[in-house]
Amino acid sequence: MKKGLVLKITGGNYTIKDLETKGVIMAKASGKLRYVRVASDKIITVSPKAGDIVNYENNYILSVNERKNSLRRPDCCNIDQVVLIFSCKEPDFSFNLLDNFILHIEKEKINVKIVITKIDLLKDDELKKLKNDLSYYERIGYEVYYTSSKINDGIDVLKPLFENKISVLSGQTGAGKSSLLNAIDPNYKQETNEISKALGRGKHTTRTTELLEYDNGYIADTPGFSSLDFIGFEIDDLKRGFKDFYELSKECRYSDCNHINEPDCNVKNNLDKILKSRYENYLKFYEEIKKNKKY
After folding, report:
1. Within this chain, do residues 131 and 195 fall inside the same structural domain, yes or no?
2. What are the residues whose beta carbons fall under 8 Å from the beta carbon of 264, sequence distance 6 or more?
3. Do 62 and 94 lie in a common domain?
4. Coil, strand, or helix at residue 183?
5. How far is CA 193 from CA 86, 204, 211, in A?
């Protein structure tokens, strides 16, 4: 049996790179791999996805090797890092969406890096305020980069991030992921589109997840998202996913403190040191998860 890396899925066809010959072939999945089943409120994906190492013969995928991690949105696996692409403007930057993405990625224990695009669209004072707010994320351990594909500011700084890694490019719709990919390597020739003025958000130019070869690694271009749900999330996932809160919680009076109304909560005692929107988003996500789980 041969081993291959799934690069792309189009309908029921899988583009696979053979790990020995390095050749690229098209394959289909065997019958038992063509479904997704749900058990105990958790989605168990049986079908291969981009990033999977698979065993195949005669252009048929027979089995999927164990994954080190797996994302549902975007739908890919075996990732070394997720590079979140968010725009300053057109569409407007969203701390709620940023925290939502980070929470989903932290659940899978994948490294996160943040790239802010379209900085040419902000006035100096607007960019200064955004950088000041985002400095909070740098203080709690996330690398933040600022760039614009139009003025080529910061593109060269980003290129080394992808060396020898499988990286996912993800983030809000219309943030400029495809434009950024084209700036990194013009050979990708990714389709780009304008922002919808009526809706205030971008149109989906990337319709499927695809691994693109780059500098001894791969960059996964994925569809952008305007929202993410909390299917399969527990309150504990939320508390651990906000890693800055998790560190503070070690000094809470109660080991199961939810940081809502509990007395002597070290998170609430340190709200003056936490970005205001960060705690507000925590509360919103808490209510969403609680509603889904019917606690």
Report:
1. yes
2. 252, 253, 254
3. no
4. helix
5. 16, 8, 21
Most confidently modeled of 45-54, 74-83, 270-279? 270-279
- C-alpha–C-alpha distance, residues 4 and 17, integer Å: 5
- d(CA 77, CA 168) in angstroms, rounded, equals 9
Does 135 map to a domain? yes
- The answer to whether residue 232 is domain-embedded is no
- CB within 8 Å of 144: residues ≥ 6 apart: 113, 114, 115, 116, 134, 135, 137, 138
- Strand locations in the chain, DSSP E? 2-10, 13-18, 24-29, 36-39, 42-45, 53-57, 60-64, 70-71, 76-77, 81-87, 111-117, 143-146, 166-171, 195-196, 201-202, 210-214, 217-221
Q: How far apart are CA 73 and CA 88, in angstroms?
A: 22
Paired tokens of 140: 């709690």
Q: What's the predicted TM-score (pTM) here?
A: 0.83
Domain contains 62:
yes
How many domains are there within the chain? 3
Amino acid at 234: E
In a domain, 197, yes or no: yes
Residue 64 in contact with residue 33, Cβ under 8 Å?
yes
DSSP 84-98: EEEESTTTTP-HHHH
Both 153 and 100 in a single domain?
Answer: yes
* pLDDT above 50: residue 200: no
Angle between helices 95-107 and 276-293 (to 10 degrees): 60
What pLDDT does residue 191 have?
A: 54
Domain that holds residue 159: 76-221
